[in-house]
Amino acid sequence: MTDNWVAHHGLTSEAFQQRFDEYADQGYRLTHVSGYSVGGEDHYAAIWDEQTGPAWRAHHNLTASEYQERFSEYVEQGYRLTHVSGYSVNSDAQFAAIWETDGLDRSDINTIDRHITNYKNQHGIPGLSVAITKDERLVFAKGYGDADRGANETVRPSHRFRIASISKPITAVATMELVESDELRLADTVFGSNGILRPKYGTPAYGSGISSPNPNSITVYHLLEHSSGWRNNGNDPMFDHPNKNQDELIRHVVGNRALQYEPGTDDEYLNFGYCVLGRVIEEVAGRPYEEYVEDAVLSACGIDRMGIAGDTKSERKPEKVIYYGGNPYGMQVARMDAHGGWIATPIDLLRFVTRVDGFDRKADILRPESETELYNREGPNRDYGEGWILQPNWRGHNGAFSGSIGFLVRRDDGFSFAALANARPSSDRFAGQLRNTVDTAINDVDDWPSYDLF
Asked: Which of 81, 101, 121 is the last residue in one of the domains?
């Protein structure tokens, strides 16, 4: 403690907050606080010291659950608890606490906050969550804004979001796990008498010409790289026929929608192809898609809180945000499992990407040759591998549908990040500006910590 310090006692909660704000403006840090009860109301004694030091946070009048939420949130931002006072008010436990971080400098945290908050406000997004790794170490995670406006619940790093098409890299990795176990080959055909799914979904439709593309030649590889021969024709089949379940939809498309180009010769981004790929995984693995992915991929990455989303608000899972704008609860999200159905935190998405990133600080779950296959540029679209968008200095995937946008990025310079939001603004429908915002925030930080928050 320096010579310049102040202390007060007998402060009501309101008076304590006034003193806190006053001294913070003058450059004082709260170093000690004790809470106690007087006449059934919380009061405080506290010491402030005029000193410099690491970034810090302090809160008082916290319930037990609020204290745990703050504790978990700050741990994921690199803060450590330096002081805590527990006390009882009307037989209810309350807490006052101080956290400090020896990681990111306060100015660097402010830099990230400024970029993310400006993006959030500019696009009218209620809430979003961001996590960043450097050299496969989690160095930052934070929530911004509202998880649930009606319940006055703010976003925490532990909140789960729909990730939409960020599901595709997960499905691609699950497919490669089957390849590595010799249960599947990328060259295996999907339909026809010798296909993986055989006649389960009926006889594929041919076009009217003699030389029409043969749907029985569609392979697993074609589904992965979006070169199956089907086109959207204005709307992806996954968003048509909302009354059909998964099997009924596949049967309808297979039986009524002819291919428009020979598989492997052209490409068109198609969610439906990944829906079929999910059924391929089920057929080969002999169990439900979600169960296989959890065991073969997510568990191997240390992830235990991801799952397939429900369609309605009543099916909302614990610590899941509310979605805003459009018709987010009028979609069959569970039907989108393999192409867009997962929910996750940004932290868990980074747990996944650090295990398939090709860097050597943490062991990957796939062999190098499998990763090379996923990220190759040999298909019709040289900017898309097998489930991954490929750019000169990064790879990853975006996700977007009603009520949700997000981006998962693995940069070549050792940084990776995930950002998820609970609205889809018309001004950033495919999350490109969100990706640019986090990229810029990372580039503007002067000094990254050496710890690993995973």
From this structure: 101
Task: Kindly list the distances between the CA atom of residue 127 and the CA atoms of 44, 130, 225, 272, in Å, as whole numbers in the listed order.
Answer: 33, 10, 32, 29
187: three-class secondary structure by DSSP: coil
pLDDT, tens digit, 9 for 90 and up, residues 320-360: 999 999 999 999 999 999 999 999 999 999 999 999 999 99
Cα–Cα distance list, 112 to 2, 310, 351, 440, 441 (Å)? 31, 32, 21, 9, 5
Q: Which of 42, 34, 46, 39 is nearest to 88 (CA)?
A: 42
Clarify whether residues 80 and 122 are in a common domain. Answer: no
Helices (H), 46-105: 64-75
Instruction: Judge if 206 and 295 occupy the same domain.
Output: yes
Instruction: Please check whether residues 112 and 147 belong to one and the same domain.
Output: yes
Chain-centroid distance of CA 53 in Å reads 33
Q: How many CA atoms lie within 13 A of 209 on its CB side?
A: 8
C-alpha–C-alpha distance, residues 416 and 409, integer Å: 5
Task: Give the range of the structural domain holding residue 402, as residue numbers without chain letter.
Answer: 104-454
Considering only CA atoms, which of 76, 96, 161, 57 is closest in space to residue 405? 161
Tokens of 231: 């086109």
Residue 310: other Cβ atoms inside 10 A: 17
Query: pTM to 2 decimals?
Result: 0.87
Number of domains making up the chain: 2
pLDDT, one tens digit per residue, over 408-433 is: 999 999 999 999 999 999 999 999 99
Whether 248 and 163 share a structural domain = yes
Number of helices (H), then strands (E), in the chain: 12, 16
CA distance 296 to 274: 18
- Based on its alpha-carbon atoms, the radius of gyration of the chain, rounded to whole angstroms, reads 25
